[in-house]
Structures are given as structure tokens and as C-alpha cells.
Amino acid sequence: WIFRLLFMLGLLLVQDWRVEYQQQHICAVKGSSVVIPCSFHYPETYKVQSVKWGHERCDIYKGPFIFDSESNDASSRFQYIGDKHHNCSFKIQQVEHNDTGKHAFRFVANSRNDQVKPWTGSVGSVLTVVNLEVVMTKPNGNRTTMEGDSVNLTCINSCDSENDVSAFIWFKNRELIHEGPAFYLSNISPANSGNYTCSLKSHKGTTSEVISIDVEYGPKNTSVSVRPSADAVAGSNITLTCSSHANPAVENYTWFKTNEQITVEAGKEPELYFREIFPHDGGQYFCSATNKYGSQNSSTVTLKVKGKLVKIVIILVVYLTLSCHFVRYILFHITLYTSKYNALMFSPCCSNKNETLFSG
Ligand SMILES: *[C@@H]1O[C@H](CO)[C@@H](O)[C@H](O)[C@H]1NC(C)=O
Ligand SMILES: *[C@@H]1O[C@H](CO)[C@@H](O)[C@H](O)[C@H]1NC(C)=O
Ligand SMILES: *[C@@H]1O[C@H](CO)[C@@H](O)[C@H](O)[C@H]1NC(C)=O
Ligand SMILES: *[C@@H]1O[C@H](CO)[C@@H](O)[C@H](O)[C@H]1NC(C)=O
Ligand SMILES: *[C@@H]1O[C@H](CO)[C@@H](O)[C@H](O)[C@H]1NC(C)=O
Ligand SMILES: *[C@@H]1O[C@H](CO)[C@@H](O)[C@H](O)[C@H]1NC(C)=O
Ligand SMILES: *[C@@H]1O[C@H](CO)[C@@H](O)[C@H](O)[C@H]1NC(C)=O
Ligand SMILES: *[C@@H]1O[C@H](CO)[C@@H](O)[C@H](O)[C@H]1NC(C)=O
Ligand SMILES: *[C@@H]1O[C@H](CO)[C@@H](O)[C@H](O)[C@H]1NC(C)=O
């Protein structure tokens, strides 16, 4: 019976040294923190000297360990939240994908007569790290999002079980905009363009991938500006600029000019440039901006071109001077044949002083 007694004693001893993991499978979202609950047992006669946690990528018996009470590192993501009696719970902050795998607890205890005994709970707790996912559904199934469309964004935490659904929050360009598992955008406008993410409400450090919504639309706010002014002086330079908001950007510009109710095309560039403007360039101008979703016409601007007063005077003077000489010349030749000496008296505007020019 002595063998039986020894066997039972041995069993008792084995049972006395043990580590219990309350959750053998733990799922966590990347960026969140997770607690691995744990308790450990050893004979009363022993006293715990050191505690360690290891990851299966290293030797869970020999280490190196991700936590070791003998080499304190307070800044580490790994925190021992248990004690040196029976609680060996472990916390991992800002969980990363490479934290996936088995985590095991090891402790070293001394007996009264300084016998040192290490023990590893080799079963361990297996950690799974997942990403938050965003599923975007569009009723019309199009790849691109157009003004007026609706879009449904749903946040999914694949750690969730049926009776345990996470609370989610939504961000647009990093600003909180919504709480709840789904975010529904109806009758989308250009202002809805942006980068969307979701997070777990309980763990602000978690974030899904970025969903970029780029709302496309036809030209809007098409307008014409005139530099330097729509009241121009003949001979100066004038620039008309067509501006418009569109996504994708405006592909084609067309300029139109209306004069006496006839509209003609006046250009194909975003800018209409007159290096030297003439009075006949005056009139009503508008532009049309086009992308793949359509066209929009601007309102019209009226370009007024004033002639230069000085120019008119010069032209008048030249005209009068020329006509004067011309008339005098003609009259002079006519009078040559009629009355050789009295002709110059009929000249309408010139004095007699220059008559020597034509005499002889
Ligand atoms: C172990 O300690 C942690 C942190 O102090 C506590 O949350 C947990 O309830 C404890 N576990 C047991 C079994 O006492
Ligand atoms: C795990 O990944 C993080 C960054 O993603 C890195 O800093 C760390 O060194 C990695 N740890 C191991 C053990 O590979
Ligand atoms: C997008 O959906 C609209 C209907 O809502 C359809 O008229 C259009 O052809 C679709 N565009 C593409 C690129 O599939
Ligand atoms: C958006 O999607 C979620 C999850 O699929 C669904 O429960 C919800 O009814 C949808 N909302 C709309 C307005 O389609
Ligand atoms: C969205 O993200 C893209 C790529 O990261 C970036 O280029 C863009 O500027 C972001 N948009 C906004 C509105 O922050
Ligand atoms: C068009 O102009 C209005 C009013 O100025 C402005 O609110 C709107 O954002 C503009 N639209 C675009 C696409 O720029
Ligand atoms: C247009 O006229 C302004 C003065 O009215 C002058 O400063 C500018 O250089 C001219 N531009 C060109 C391209 O001739
Ligand atoms: C822009 O003009 C080019 C050349 O005339 C034409 O091929 C193209 O279809 C036009 N684009 C749009 C959006 O109308
Ligand atoms: C813009 O004006 C042109 C020329 O008058 C016309 O043919 C076209 O239909 C107009 N476009 C729109 C969108 O009103």
C-alpha cells in the first residue's frame, strides 16, 4: 500500500502545482487592451519568488519572457495585474497582430528549506487579434459615389458573438460624427466627401481601415470673372476667367458671346484673353463648364469697350487735314482749267498762304 500512498501523494502534489486559465480563447480588436484572467496554486509551504508571462513564439519554460517580475519595465505594453499569491491575471495594452498566439504563466517558488521550484501552466490562453472592418453597401451598386446616392457603412467586430455586440463610434476626418453599428448617408452631397473610420466605443485606440468617400458631381457654381474690369478701354488687355466646381474636374470649357440675340462660340480655354480689345469685342459673354456628369452655363457678363477719346480726336484731325488738302488739290486742278488766277478764292478751309505749293 505504500506505493499507492506515494502515488496518491504524488497526484496531490501534482494537483497542488497548477495554473488555471479561465478563458482559453480570447479575441481582441487591434489597438484595444485585453486581460488574460489567470489563477495559480502551489503548496502552502512555498513562497512565490518571481512571476513571468511568455508567448509561444519563444520558449514558455526558458523564455525570454514578455513579462518578468525580476526585470521590471513599467513602460511596457505588458502589465502584470495579479499578485504573488494566487492571482496571475495579465493585461496587454494596444494589442498588435503579432500578439496573436498562446500566452502562458510561469512562476518560481521557494520552500522553507530553500528548495526552488519553477512551474509553467503550459495550457495557456490563446489570443486572437482582429481588425475592425467596415462594410460599405450602396443600393445602386455603383463603384463611384455620385451626388444624391445613398451609402450604408457598417462596422464589424468579428470578435463579437451573437449576444454580445460591441458599441461603435464613427469618425469623419478624425472627428466624431455618429454612434452605433451602422452609419447611413442618404442623398449624399459633396460635403459628405471624406475619410471615414469606426472604433470601439470602449477602446478609443482601436480603428478600422479608412473608407474614403469621394462624391462626384457635375459642374456647380460656374461663374465668370473679368480682369481688370468689364468696363474696358479700347486697346487695353482683358481676361475673362471661367471658374466652376466639379468632381471629376471640368474637362471642357466653352465660351459664348451674344450680340443682338445671336450667340456664337468664342473660345475653348478656361480663360478668354484679349491682348488688345476693340469696341466690336463688346457684348455679353458666358461660359459653359462640362465634365462627364453634364454641363453648366454661367450667368452672363457684359463687356463694354469705350473708344479712346484721344484716338478719336487724332483720327478726326487726320481725316480733316487729309480731306482739306484733297479738296484743295482737286479744286486747284479744276480751277487751273477754268480760271487760272481766281480759283484759290473758293477753297473752303485753307488759307492762301500755301498756294505756292501748287503753283507753277
Ligand atoms: C485578479 O486581479 C485582477 C486585477 O486586480 C482582478 O480584476 C481579478 O478579479 C482578480 N482575479 C481573481 C480571481 O481574484
Ligand atoms: C510586433 O509588432 C510591433 C509593431 O507592429 C513591433 O514594434 C514589435 O516589435 C513586434 N513584436 C514582435 C515580438 O515581433
Ligand atoms: C450608376 O447608377 C446609375 C443609376 O443610379 C446608373 O444610371 C449609372 O449608369 C451607373 N453608373 C455606373 C458607372 O455604373
Ligand atoms: C445599413 O446596414 C445595416 C447592417 O447591414 C442594416 O441593419 C441597416 O438597416 C442598413 N440601413 C439602411 C438604411 O439600409
Ligand atoms: C483622406 O485620406 C487620403 C489618403 O490618406 C488623403 O490624401 C486625404 O487628404 C484625406 N482626406 C481628408 C479630407 O482628410
Ligand atoms: C457653391 O456655392 C455655394 C454658395 O456660395 C456654396 O455653399 C457651395 O459649397 C458651393 N458648391 C461647391 C461645390 O463648391
Ligand atoms: C495687360 O495690361 C496691364 C495694364 O493694364 C499690364 O500691366 C499687363 O502687363 C498687360 N498684360 C499683358 C500680357 O500684356
Ligand atoms: C471634351 O472635348 C473633347 C474634344 O472635343 C471631347 O472628345 C470630349 O468628349 C469632351 N468631354 C466632355 C465631357 O464633353
Ligand atoms: C448653355 O448655352 C448654350 C449656348 O446658348 C446652349 O446651347 C446650352 O444648351 C446651354 N446649356 C445649358 C446646360 O443650359
Any key phrases for this structure?
single chain, 360 residues, Immunoglobulin-like, 4 domains, 28 strands, 43% strand
Task: Provide structural commentary.
This protein is mostly beta strands and 360 residues long. The chain has four domains: 16-129, Immunoglobulins (Immunoglobulin-like), CATH 2.60.40.10; 131-213, Sandwich (Immunoglobulin-like), CATH 2.60.40; 217-306, Immunoglobulins (Immunoglobulin-like), CATH 2.60.40.10; 309-357, no CATH class. Helices cover 12% and strands 43% of the residues. The protein contains two helices and 28 strands. The chain has helices spanning 2-16, 309-337; strands at 18-21, 25-29, 34-36, 38-41, 47-55, 67-68, 78-80, 90-92, 101-110, 116-120, 125-130, 132-137, 145-146, 151-157, 168-172, 175-179, 182-185, 194-200, 211-213, 215-227, 231-233, 238-247, 252-259, 262-267, 271-274, 283-291, 294-297, 301-306. The strands form seven sheets. Strands 2, 5, 6, 9, 10 and 11 form a six-stranded mixed β-sheet that branches. Strands 21, 23, 24, 26, 27 and 28 form a six-stranded mixed β-sheet that branches. The chain is rod-shaped and about 155 Å long. The N and C termini lie far apart (169 Å). The structure holds 2-acetamido-2-deoxy-beta-D-glucopyranose (NAG) (9 copies). One 2-acetamido-2-deoxy-beta-D-glucopyranose binds at residues 256, 263, 288, 295-297. The site of one 2-acetamido-2-deoxy-beta-D-glucopyranose (NAG) has 2 residues, from loops.
Summarize the structure.
The protein is mainly beta. The chain is built from 2 helices and 28 strands.
